[in-house]
Amino acid sequence: MSQGPYLLRNQVIADIDQIDVYEANQGYQPLRKALKEYDPKALVEMVKASGLRGRGGAGFPTGMKWSFLPNDGRPRYLVVNSDEAEPGTFKDRELIEKNPHQLIEGMIISSYATGAREAYVYCRGEFLYGAAQLKRAVAEAYQHGYLGENILDSGFSLDIKVYRGAGAYICGEESALLESLEGKRGNPRLKPPFPAVAGLYGMPTVVNNVETICNLPPLVENGPEWYRTMGTEKSPGLKVMSVSGHVNRPGNYEIPLSTPLRSLIEDYAGGIKGGRQVKAIIPGGSSVPVLTADKLDTPVDYEAILAAGSMLGSGGCIVIDDQTCMVAVSARLVRFYREESCGKCTPCREGTFWMTDVLERMEAGAGNPRDLDLIRDMADNIAGKCFCPLGDASLGVVVSAMKYFEDEFEAHVTEHSCPMGARLYDTVNH
Amino acid sequence: MIRLTIDDREITVPEGTMIVDAAAQLGIDVPIYCYHQALGPLGACRICLVQVEKMPKLVTGCTTAVQEGMVVHTRGAAVDKGRKGVLEFLLINHPLDCPVCDKGGECFLQDYTFQYGAPAGRYDEPKIHKLKDAPINDFIIIDQERCVLCQRCVRFMGEYVGEEQLLLEGRGVDTVVATVSHQPMDSQFSGNVIDLCPVGALLSIPYRYKARPWNLEREESVCPHCPVGCTTSVTSREGHVIRVEGRPVAGRNWGWLCDRGRFGYDFGYVEKRLLNALVEGREMSAAESTRTVGRWLDAALTDRGPESVAFLVGGQQTMEEAYQVARFSQEVLPGSRTAMVRTVEGYLPSGLNGSFQDIERADVVVYIGGDPYDAVPVVHLKVRERQRANPGLKVMGVGAYELTRDFHGAKNFTVKPQHQAAFLAYALAQAGTKSQAVEHLASQLGTYVPSLLNPVTPEEIQALGRTLLESEHLVLLWDGKEPEMESVLLALRAAREDATEVLPTFGPSNWRGWERAGIPAHFASLQTIIDDAAQGKISVLFVVGADLLRDYPDREQARRALERVDHVVQVGLFLPEEVQLYHAVVPGAGWSEVYGTYTNMEGRMQVAMATVQPPGQARPLRTYLNSWAHALKKSFVLESEWDPFDDDSGDFVPRESLPELRPVTVPEPSPGTPPGSLRVVGFSLVMEGGMPSEILAPRVPRFPGRISPQDAARLGFSEQGGELQLEGTMGKISVMVAPDRRIPDGILALPYGIHGSPLNQLGEGASVKAVRLEEVSLG
Ligand SMILES: Cc1cc2nc3c(=O)[nH]c(=O)nc-3n(C[C@H](O)[C@H](O)[C@H](O)COP(=O)(O)O)c2cc1C
Ligand code: SF4
Ligand code: SF4
Ligand code: SF4
Ligand code: FES
Which domain holds residue A92? Predict the structure, then answer.
């Protein structure tokens, strides 16, 4: 059994984005193994057995998702979600920029398993370099016979196309992504039908996150039992965590699931800058509620973080130190959702707009005591009433911050200033 | 079927029904903005929140299908608060300019805010500003600030009509509805977005600032402009029609209109409207005119007998009026004749006449001769809707040019004019059926072999024949141009076991109704009267509603007829063409001014209420008939109103049993059109023919004629088109033409009834010399 890191081998092997280096480090061996030793069904079973869960945010079991595809003879597609635009999350970016062949190999294996003959990468519009790396790597893979007709004499054929989005966070939501990929406005679709039944161009489609698919080569190489040696029963395996905020070494870290948050922050990310204290942690990207410092011993896995009052989400861990103003954090993040709301449904479109104005007014010292109830009521009018999860996502931080740091919000509307004497931009290290 | 409980009441509805629709069946009103049954669920506005027991959150009633045993609450604290929240959100960026909004009083934003909204606003931040009062075409303005982004308009144009002319621009709170590339919308269905818009964001320009709902009278009516007979409601204020809206009829139609029907309501007020009688060049009162006409009639009766009197009915007359003419002819002038004014010569036996429900069930739809999009626009939408429901629907065209438009996998057989009946007979014969009727048809074809204008293989012709014979539910839309088609259609019905239904797309709109009222519909009846008149056998000719020179297929012959009649009396809304040929022109009352019944192309009778008074001296027809009878010292008592409805056939005119097959003439192997010539093909275009309208003027095509792009290039026209000089045996006219890729080389498609360049001066199917006009004037 090989030694880790598994997904972030680029951090230890120089130039692994080059195909010869990738091949020299067992690259494309798992693909040969998959094509030779597995039939598609067995591969799906293997993924099921591993317990791999989607790394795009919802943590849905990948093997189960694959087995939802109807067996009706229609063409199928694999679409890899590389739209990664959630504030605090930057793992997929490293995976495609630094080790594109790993994703391509994972895509070939996944397509073989799911019966797709065409696969797409939907790449975030701003990922110019990442998209270029992927395109180059796809071309190399064609040259080396890993893509195209009759791959490695297996009889299996696959084409991969890399598509760049146009700069919309909502296009990371799988159905908006499919609309955009079809050349339409990136608004989410009504579900059901789910993509597995009617996805790209109405055909059965698997949408998976970059990191999810990158798990395939090591999984095939090492087997599901190996995967289950890490993490918990329900959250087995590896996760790449993007750590940012007031830590000494922000960056992506590959951890076995259920590693404690404290260890992630202190051992991996080098602890809090300037010897300050943790005030709050956003453990799973900007869409999830904050955790307070007393939750630092929570293991990083789906269930434990949920029990602690938040979500593992996409694994974008934003660490906030004790000198940061939570009103400012909330205002900044709600503004992100206001800018990124697709505008389709009323509560998200208008609610994020209004709430941003109120929070920014409060932060600027022009709040008044009615604003707190107003925000709470507005949040209640948004929560659970939007068309897609983005609307609810906009509330994760602000609602939890108001709960845990109520005094800070109150001070803003009674004192008309920030008790922290701080503004977000002063404390963030660019 | 699914059983569920809504607000403590049980109901059983078909699977797939949305909660809002199930509730509606119980009379429970769940508010909606974005949902529309024809467009399907979208889930955008969130106003339709309801509570379903055992579901953790409120759900949108428009996107949630019913489930067995579901328990739904459409009101309650949580639901009401959710709706209140949505309304508050909708209003934060709303300009709140209801006092100057035409929609005020008929607006769902006002209504629901009244019902669920908060008494006072909590919003103190600056509002977003967007475009206000921006025209999106000649008829519609948009106020983006009032828009609730329900997308009905965008989805209707794109998904439903298939003419993507509106889109959402921008994102989030900056999202707006705009036209594609900021070009004016030119779809002939554009006006429907006004009806669809739940708020005052899309408004009618002609109706702008004309009234408030409390100034209005609204009457149920029927559009008179084409044989579809769309259901409308007519709004009037102080005796003027100021608006026409679509009127949905549950289970039957969605209330779509084409722009002709929606905006062409001003024909009652245009400058051309006849307000006084004109007798031998002298204006006089309508009453005075009746004495003169009575004298003419009296003289005719004494000198030449009732056989020398004839009545022609046309235009927009109601069934009741046609009935009055028929009765007058029979009772006051027994021996006189009646006919209806026709533009095309074909006839459809009522026994073959299908209904729109047949389109809803069709697996094959065949367009014969003309494109419904031009002639009967809303039928185009019905066929599209069928294709949305049944993507396997086959749409085919058999005509002198490509007839189908934007239908997936449509197949066209481009057949020379006057060859279409023979071609279809040939296709049926090729399909190898044992049917006697088809064999009989085939036996008349001799050695006829069709030559098509587009590349089609013999196998494809055979396949067409088979599709016609073997489809499960066949609907044919026929333009009535080739009279022989009647026999082909009868043979087809005889050869098939499954539904074979024909919908006539030809006018006049109400011809089937007049037929029921007793006016002969066959072209031959009309032709005999015209020919007799041309031979001087007619003394008094009444033309009711029609403009004979414009409508009759042979303009020269019609002119000869008018010239030889002693007294031609026109009752109509407008001055007819070449008015000097008429001895009396008396002002009639029309649509919206008289109550009456119209029969549409399904043979369905529909009532149109009177909304306003006729202007000036205009009188309803029966007033004239009564006083003419009086002048003859005869009594003409129309006892109580005639009821055209039949006990057995309900809304439909009774279907007669089918007539005998008549022979199909095999077309002469027509010589190719000589170089420099084009063959003329007529088609109905609702925008062009018929009633004048100042509102619609900008939409009347500047280049009504259509020629192939190659011919256009050969003639030296730009892509836009230009003026063409045509010379046939019957005369010389010039017409504006534009290239159209659906027209094959050598064909000139011309709408009927274009003012000033009438097709009936050249003749249907005629080969005419064509040159670009500039060259003429240069030479
Ligand atoms: C607003 C929104 C944004 C999302 N953005 C992403 C994204 O950038 N990348 C991603 O993989 N999944 C994103 N998702 C989740 C996807 O909808 C989808 O669940 C995921 O791609 C499935 O892949 P997985 O099963 O491998 O996690 C987003 C979801 C929402 C609601
Ligand atoms: S919640 Fe509504 S407005 Fe917001 S992104 Fe989703 S669909 Fe668009
Ligand atoms: S303009 Fe009217 S119909 Fe169109 S999206 Fe806005 S509110 Fe809806
Ligand atoms: S389709 Fe015909 S009946 Fe309907 S609105 Fe248009 S013109 Fe009137
Ligand atoms: S009507 Fe249901 S969401 Fe708009």
Answer: 9-228
Distance CA B6, CA B9 (A): 5
Domain co-membership, A194 together with A249 = no
Chain A hits for B43, CB-CB cut-off 8 Å, are 190, 345, 387
Q: What is the C-alpha separation between B559 and B562, in angstroms, rounded?
A: 5
What pLDDT does B738 receive?
96
pLDDT for res B492:
95
- Its domain, for residue B561, covers 277-343+510-631
For residue A412, what is the domain's CATH number? 1.20.1440.230
- H helix intervals, B131-191: 152-155
Q: pLDDT at residue A428 above 50?
A: no
Q: Let me know if residue B310 belongs to a domain.
A: yes
From B596, B615, B631, give the residue that closes a domain. B631
Residues in chain B, pLDDT under 50 = 776-779
- Give the pLDDT confidence score for residue B779 in this predicted structure: 37
pLDDT tens figures, B453-473: 899 999 999 999 999 999 999
Tally of domains within chain A? 3
The interface predicted TM-score of the complex, written ipTM, equals 0.95
State the residue for tokens 């792009």: B709
What would the pLDDT profile of A40-82 be if each residue is shown by its tens digit? 999 999 999 999 999 999 999 999 999 999 999 999 999 999 9
A108 close to A69: Cβ distance less than 8 angstroms:
no
The pLDDT tens digits for A96-131 are 999 999 999 999 999 999 999 999 999 999 999 999
Cα atoms in the 13 Å half-sphere on the side-chain side of A70? 14
pLDDT of residue B676: 83
Same domain, A106 and A213: yes
Ligand 2 environment, Cβ below 6 A: A 170, 188, 341-345, 348-349, 386-388, 390-391
CA distance B180 to B190: 13
Indicate if A27 and A120 belong to the same structural domain: yes
Cite the DSSP H helix spans in A150-294: 174-181, 210-214, 216-228, 261-263
**Final residue before a domain boundary, out of A172, A205, A228:** A228
Q: Which atom of ligand 5 is closest in space to residue B61's alpha carbon? A: 2
β-pair type (A77-82, A118-123): parallel
Q: For A408-421, how does the pLDDT look when each residue is reduced to its tens digit (9 = 90+)?
A: 999 999 988 888 77
Ligand having the closest approach to the CA of B202: 3
One domain, residues B602 and B573 = yes
Where residue B27 sits, what CATH number does that domain have?
3.10.20.740
Asked if B391 has any chain A CB less than 8 Å from its own CB, the reply is no
Size of interface A-B (CB pairs under 8 A): 101
Tally of domains in chain B: 5
What is the CA(A57)–ligand 1 centre distance, in A? 6
